[in-house]
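Protocol step 4 of 5: obtain the predicted structure for the target chain.
Materials: sequence only (see below). No template structures provided, no constraints applied. The aim of this step is simply to have a reference model before the mutagenesis design in step 5. Sequence pasted as it appears in the construct record:
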Amino acid sequence: MDFFNALRVSTMGLTVQRMRMNVISTNLANMYTTRTATGGPYRRQIVVLEPKPVEDFESILRSETESLCGVTVAGIVEDPTSFRRMYSPGHPDADKDGYVYMPNIDVITEMTDMMLARRSYEANVTAIGSTKAMLLKALEIGR
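Step 4 output (structure tokens):
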């Protein structure tokens, strides 16, 4: 892998982790949203990732498994887990028994995902810095 492919892979990683952080923050912001435009409580969103092949001449010559390099966002899907049920008879969205359906968001899960995304983002920044330092050293040796 050359320096520019390494930079491309790390850049893709930064983009993906930023998207994950945006989705996590949206989930946390809607933790108590009991009514959305679709009619029910807010449903937790999850970022789905897929490997991305490098599109250059060298990768075309390689086999399919070797040409996979990097990751991209395949989509954002809704978490199918059931909603939490909370007893709150005074709530405007309570059913006839006094229960309100709350979003399927767990703060601990979201914070764990946020820490993982942050660490991955930091690792990609470090990889970019290391690649840049190696490139500068190679240029220095070539003089």
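Step 4 remarks: The first helix runs from residue 3 to 29. Residues 16 and 93 are 36 Å apart (CA to CA).
Proceed to step 5.
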